[in-house]
Amino acid sequence: MDTLKKEFASKLLNIKAIKLQPNDPFTWASGWNSPIYTDNRIALSYHDVRSYVKLELCHAIHEHFPEATAVAGVATGAIAQGALVADQLAMPYAYVRPKPKDHGTKNQIEGRLPEGAKVVVVEDLISTGLSSLKAVAALREAGFEVVGMVASYTYGFPIAEEAFKEAGVKLVTLGDYEHTIEVAAETGYVSKEDLEVLKEWRKDPANWKK
Description:
Layout: H1 2-14, E1 18-20, E2 26-27, E3 33-34, E4 36-38, H2 47-64, E5 70-74, H3 79-89, E6 93-96, E7 109-111, E8 118-126, H4 130-141, E9 145-154, H5 158-167, E10 171-176, H6 177-186, H7 192-203
């Protein structure tokens, strides 16, 4: 697993789907200052990386959730990833909106899954985990059994780990923050001093200032 996480980090750093800027932090939508910005959708633009992510997500499902009979992606970031995975696995597919549409059929789940389907959820990025678990709640409310979630990347925040534990959802990810900064240091992407800054941010991201 460590080898996979480091390989994943290397590929996404290479195409700048993951960016590290400890001396010029990003501002997230939440208002947090962050030395990292992750946009896994960039991987969709590169056939080799796109295929790699798709196949590794499928491998994770085969290994950890072999009972799954359907796939659901989380809008909007994982809609495409989820569709690619479902196609590879030859399974029914739908995606879940953050909230129901305010017009038309007012769907929150877009698509049609078989009654009683055992659903594996595909997500692109886990931060606090709250939006991902809203999708799980919507699927459960609709009568589906959620067997677990696979995601491309997680920051590994304790708040997310606790939220998934409380929701009773097993989460498997291809990449994580710990291995990303390790690879970045090994390849010279960041200096030893920068590595310490990156580690400090991870301890208290909500209050970190540079």
